Amino acid sequence: MPIARPTDLDGALRSLSEIPSAHVLAGGTDAMVEITFGQRRPEHVLALRRIPELRGHAADDERLRFGALLTYTQMEHDLADLAPGLAMAARTVGSPQIRNTGTIGGNLGTASPAGDTLPWLLAMDAEVELASVRGRREVALSDFITGPKRTAREPDELITAVHVPRVEGPQHFAKIGPRNAMVISVACFALILDTTNRRVRVGMGAVGPTPIRPADAERAVSAEIDWDQLTCPDEAIAGFAEACADAAEPISDHRSTADYRRHAVGVLAARSLRRCLAA
Amino acid sequence: MSDAAHPPPSAPTPVPEPETYELTINGRTHEVPTAWLGESLLYVLRERLGLPGSKNACEQGECGSCSLFFDGVLVNSCCVLAADATDADIRTVEGLGGEDELTDVQQAFLDTGAVQCGFCIPGLITTVHDLLDRTPTADELEIREAISGNLCRCTGYGRILEAVEQVKARRGAVR
C-alpha cells in the first residue's frame, strides 16, 4: 500500500491521474475506521493534508468558498458569522478530537446519508469544485451525491472546495441522536430563511438514501411567511412540518426506525422554522 | 474510492514502496519499519515503538483513550494513518511531563482521586491539558464539552471535573 504525500495541488492531481484507484485521504476519520476494521484495504493512498490550496475559506460579494480540508472545528469557530447554519452543524459532529480532524471535503467525499454538513450545503444550492489534470469543473451538490456513499466524482478527480451563494437571513441546524455529543444523526435538519430571495431553504439528513431537499414544503411555506415581519401562521408551520415528513424516505436500521425518523424530521422542521422566525 | 468502471491506466507510474518511514514523537525521531502502511498511529505507537501510554479501546474515534497532540492539535490517534504522520510534531501522554515528573494535571487527578481503573486517564489528561492551555478559565459547561469525547466507565466524571477545577485554581494562584 504505497502512499503519496504531495505538497501542492498540481502534485496531487498528477499523482491521482497516474493512480486513479488511490484512496484519497483527508482527515481520516472515516477511512481509518474502515481500514482498521478490515472493510477497506486500499492498494494506494493519496494523502492531502500537506496541500495549502485545499485549506481555509474565502468570501467575495457573491459566494463563500470552503476549502476541502476545512475542519469541523474551523467551521464551528471561523464561520459562525458567515455561515451560522454550517457552524451549528459542525458543532454537533463527533467529539472535539473528531472535529479537529474531520473535514468538509471528507464529508462530501464519503457522502454518507447522515453526513451532517450535507443538508445545509444542499439547502444552499452548493456547488462542489472538482479538479483533475484534465481541468476543473463545478457540480451542483444535488447532482454530485448520486446515492448512499456514492458521488459523481471521477476517479482522477479531487474535491478541492465547495461554494455557496451569500444569502441574508436567519439559519438553524437541528439534529437528533441518543445523546448530545458523539452521535451519528438519526435525523438532522438545516433551514435558512433566505430574506434576500424571500424563500425558505431546507435540507434534511439521515432520512433518505441521500440528503433531501423538500421542494414542495419549501414553496408552500415560503408563500405563507410574512417576509417583512418574519412571522408565519401556526397552521402553516404545522403544514410545513407535515410536508417535510412526507418528503422523507427513511429506512429502519440499527440507529432508528423509519417511523421515528419520519416523525422526528417533522418535529425538527417546525422547531427550526420557529427558531428562525421573529419571536 | 476506486471505481470498477474506471480502471487505472494500463501503465501507471510505479510508486516505490518505502522501506521505512520516520515519526517525530515527543521531540525524538523514531524509525518505523514498514509492515503495512494501513496501520493507525495508535497501533504503531503501541505495537512498534513501545509507547503504550495512548490506550486502545474502541479503535473508531469514539472513546478518546488514544488522544494525543498532532502538530499541537488534539486528535484521536486511532483515526490517523501513521504513514501520513511523517513530518508532524507528535506529542503523546509520555511527553507531557518530564522524566519521573508529573504535570499539574496528572498531580490533580491523583490528589482528587479522579482515577479508578485508569484506562481512560492518559486520554483525559491529554484532553485537559489541551483545554486549559487554550482556555485557562474554562467554565463547567466548557469543561464538560471538552471532555465529551473521552469516555470513562468508572468514575461518573465527578472527581475528574474536580481535578480540572483544582488545576484551574492552582494555575490561577501562580499567576
Structure description:
The complex is a heterodimer of chains A (279) and B (175). Chain A is an alpha+beta fold and 279 residues long. Chain A folds into two domains: 3-165, Uridine Diphospho-n-acetylenolpyruvylglucosamine Reductase, domain 3 (2-Layer Sandwich); 171-276, Enolase-like, domain 1 (2-Layer Sandwich). Chain A contains eleven helices and 13 strands. A five-stranded antiparallel sheet of chain A has the order 4-5-10-6-7. In chain A, strands 1-3-2 form a three-stranded parallel sheet, with helices on one face. In chain A, a hairpin with a 2-residue loop joins strand 6 (127-132) and strand 7 (135-140). Chain A starts with a strand and ends with a helix. The model of chain A has no long low-confidence stretch (mean pLDDT 96). Chain B has 175 residues and is an alpha+beta fold. Chain B has two domains: 20-95, Ubiquitin-like (UB roll) (Roll); 104-174, DNA polymerase, domain 1 (Orthogonal Bundle), CATH 1.10.150.120. Helix content of chain B is 31%, strand content 13%. Chain B is built from five helices and five strands; from the N terminus they run ββαβββαααα. Chain B has helices spanning 41-48, 104-111, 121-134, 140-146, 158-174, and strands at residues 20-25, 28-33, 67-70, 73-76, 89-91. Chain B has a five-stranded mixed sheet, sandwiched between helices. In chain B, strand 3 (67-70) and strand 4 (73-76) form a beta hairpin. In chain B, helix 2 crosses helix 5 (158-174). Chain B is elongated. The model of chain B is unreliable at 1-5 and 7-12 (pLDDT under 50).
Features:
heterodimer; A: about 280 residues; alpha+beta; Uridine Diphospho-n-acetylenolpyruvylglucosamine Reductase, domain 3; Enolase-like, domain 1; 5-stranded antiparallel beta sheet; 3-stranded parallel beta sheet; about 35% helix; B: about 180 residues; Ubiquitin-like (UB roll); DNA polymerase, domain 1; 5 helices; elongated; disordered N terminus
